[in-house]
Amino acid sequence: MRPKLVLKDLLMLGFQKFLKSSSIHLKVQGDRTLSTGKNPVIIPVIDLEAIDKDPVKRRGIVDKVRDASETWGFFQVINHGIPAGVLEEMGAGVRRFFEQDIEMKKIFYTRDATKKFVYNSNFDLYTAPVANWRDTFFSYMAPYPPKPEELPEACRDTMMEFSKQVTSLGISLFGLLSEALGLKTDHLEKMDCAEGLALISHYYPACPEPELTLGTSKHSDNDFLTVLLQDQIGGLQMLHQDQWIDIPPVPGALVINIGDLMQLISNDRFKSVEHRVLANRIGPRISVACFFSTSFQPSSKLYGPIKELLSEDNPPVYRETTVNEYLSYFYDHGLDGTSPLTHFKL
Ligand code: OGA
Ligand code: NI
């Protein structure tokens, strides 16, 4: 299908190409400055090796996580404890699913987001202003894991193993983030931030005219925290001080980013930052985004700014909401380029 084009996106992508070759800064439609990356900005890469071994080193890691979460909203982690083989197998499993016979894939095609395994192209095809050059499948792996037979054979075992590993990394990360906020290590875990996990696997085919579309439109993630596995193709970018910054693939690393719900409970201390994926002449590009969020589990649990972080000088910025309410708002709008967070501001 040929994606609908929006003039603004076209202009931006066109300008960006132009800027790459001319090395100057320009204001596009008063929207944002696009820069060439003459002095490329590199997001932090944090080595987690010592987190459970050395308390002094752990404090140093917590400082880096705090700094990255406050100023970037994004960082990469190495020595995160997930074996390289598990990462490779996950990527291979995703590829096997998307590249198998169409008859096998058809069985899983649906737009019913309550299904255990959902395979389609552009979850927001009927709500977003433009379509993206991307196919996706997703599955809720926790707190109620699918039965193995509910997952396609092509990636069943790898999804189970990868989810187990990502869950324990997630618990470690929520521990570091809790300490970074000055809270007890298990504070965020006790708030059930690590309770729900959705695996969202993307397949970005090679695109003959990448300047006319995007792999994923600008958005922020609607969860507490995202752990992202990306392959070596590249194209993921985040918005930092009005510039699109590349998040380059680092072999063996995982990309971590703060989600909207974490920005909400940290009362804007941690930033859920907008990001996008460029389309590419080279492909496919494969990525797996692991969303920590209880998603559509019916729960009346309210999330608002954490009381311990509030004071007279730091009053709550957001009203309380449920994960369901937040997600419903997100799904009603799709990737339309605006953050649902503003809707929940007091
Ligand atoms: C996402 C996302 C980035 C990627 O799924 O929310 O931003 O690299 N994915 O596919
Ligand atoms: Ni995202």
CATH evolutionary superfamily: B-lactam Antibiotic, Isopenicillin N Synthase, Chain
CATH topology: Jelly Rolls
Low-confidence stretches: 1-36
Distinct bound molecules: N-oxalylglycine, nickel (II) ion
> Shape from CA axes?
globular
**Helix proportion range:** 25-40%
How many separate helices? 8
Largest sheet: 8 strands, mixed
**Neighbour order of strands in the largest sheet:** 3-4-12-9-14-7-6-5
Estimated radius of gyration: 20 Å
Our measurement of the CA-to-CA distance between the termini, rounded to an integer number of angstroms, reads 41 Å
Strand content is: 15-25%
CATH domain class: Mainly Beta
CATH 2nd-level architecture? Sandwich
**pLDDT averaged over residues:** 87
Give the total of domains.
1
Task: Characterise the protein shown here.
With 346 residues, the chain is of the alpha+beta class. The protein has a single domain, classed as Jelly Rolls. A hairpin with a 2-residue loop joins β10 and β11. The chain is globular, with a radius of gyration of 20 Å. The N terminus is likely disordered. Bound molecules: N-oxalylglycine and nickel (II) ion. The site of N-oxalylglycine has 11 residues, from β7, β9, β13 and β14. Belongs to the iron/ascorbate-dependent oxidoreductase family. Its cofactor is Fe cation. This is CME8 PROTEIN.
Compact overview of the structure:
Helices cover 29% and strands 21% of the residues. It is an alpha+beta fold and 346 residues long. It has a single domain, classed as Jelly Rolls.
